[in-house]
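Minutes, project check-in
Item: structure for the 622-residue chain
Input as provided by the requester:
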Amino acid sequence: MSEPTYSQIDGDILQALEPAGKLYRAVMLLLGVGIAYALAVWVYQVRMGMGVAGINHPVGWATYITNFVFWVGIAHSGTLISAILHLVRAKWRAAVSRSAEAMTIIAIATAGLFPLIHLGRLWVFYFIIPYPSQRQIWPNFISPLVWDVIAISTYFVVSVLFFYVGMLPDVAAVRDEYYARLGPDHPRTRLYRRLALGWHGSGSQWRNYGRGYLYFAALATPLVVSVHSVVSWDFAMSLLPGWHTTIFAPYFVAGAIHSGLAMVLVLLIPLRKLLHLERLITIDHFASVAKTMIVTGMIVGYAYMLEPFMSWYSQDVFERQFAAWRATGFLAIGYWSLFVLNVAAPLLFLSKRIRRSIPMLVTIGALVVIGMFAERYVIIIGSTAHDFMPHNWRSYAPRWPEYSITAGAFTFFLFWFLGFSKVLPAVPTADVKDLVTEERTESVEMSTAGRLTDVRQAKSGVLAIFTDPAKMLAGVKAAIDAGMPYDTFSPSRLPPMEPLYRPSPVRYWTLLGALVGVVSGFALAIGTALVNGLIVGGKMPVSIVPYCIIGFEGLILIGAIANFVGLLVHCHLGHSRRVPAMYDRRFSHDHFGLFIPALPGQTEPARTLLEGTQPEELHVIQ
């Protein structure tokens, strides 16, 4: 099937942002009631104490921590699709990346609620924040629980920045459409004008934007591996049978991506129908997600088989008895269901007919989501309920507050996801337009370098407007041959222009931020350890190896923030929301511009050159 046109892409996205109908409002109201009910149950639990939950001794971690690990896992698909697949230039990511990124942010926010819910005494959460206080009680940066706080916070901040940066060109297109349709003072126009930060799609902006986005992807890729590895170390760093194993990090990462991809299918297929995005999000995109799930499902299946093998091969009597009990005890049904739901069901996608069937995609995706929740439940409950001491063995069953709050988490997630879909573009228009532009300019080659001029520095000149990017690039060649400075405007990246761009200075911001971050991370951890300087069991207070985690998270966090600031500075965004005088609001949709700066009264050479390129329109900017 051929790529949609620029106008079709914009039309489909803008139609999805139109005011919601009765069905949408009814669903949102129902989800809001679910959130209110869960909130009331949580208030009841706070007032009555954690005893109203099924948590007991020794099962101190139960459904709430299961939810935490599950939702962190759901968040991983957005980073996989947006960052990792961007680095490997997978074209199918374009249409589904925005929804996956939104899913990531909302899932992290949902996951972040559960440590607070599990804490019980919510008002003392600040004990874990590293700040000077009279108590002189600082967090222990050797603890995996503190690693969790740092890793999840870093992941949330980086995901929000990555999401926002990727959205800038799309928000500018919506801004320009509402400017033309509703006027400059309409609330919608003003909202999107503020969000767009003055984006105008000039060549100088795309040069810095492309580099900055690439650096975000490069920072987020190791982060997605580290975050769920750190979550797995909450368990693996203990000594309980079934937890104390080196396989947990890759096992958890593969499972996280597996569950996240399944959630993409479960959410995006109905959303595609609800917002009428069938032309942009095709069955081919879902088939690609299904193929990826075959790989992640096989990795998860390998981990499932390796766990009992390691218990047998280790000759550890406690590991052996635990593996046997898990397969035959009160969690046996849940344990054996994992092989069916998480491994066997995705293997059905090996059939082309099944992975291109909408009902089967939704069904298998839902089965995997259920299976991955069950996997976290079995892992967490199993080891705490059946540890080393037989007299300490207990069973566990969730009570109604746990069921209610878990259901509330799903309603909370769906409420914000549906809300996002009606406020912000659910499909990255610039990325989809990239594919159209690449197809229309694949035969164009730019072999010489010219003087790319930042249009914000020019006050006058000649502007040529094109509907064909190939014709505009021919004009760029003519300007280069004539030795004239120029700049371009486009609704998406122009691949043939890449060789003409100078290296972006954004990279220096990213590098400096990364260096500051890693030094600050180690300084924070070492300084905290030296506050009291206790030597326990002959061990010195400073332990460099575990501090590498804090240093790494600092590197990613400060590096990403610095990258964002550098991108804003060099793209001239943020402090001024005004677009250049020569900007035409059609440039964010389906038109292309070539601007040659010239002093007033000296525009004739530029005008003559641009007339020879046969533009649709030609304007002299005085």
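Outcome recorded: Residues 6-437 form a domain with the Formate dehydrogenase/DMSO reductase fold fold (CATH 1.20.1630.10).
No further action items on this chain.
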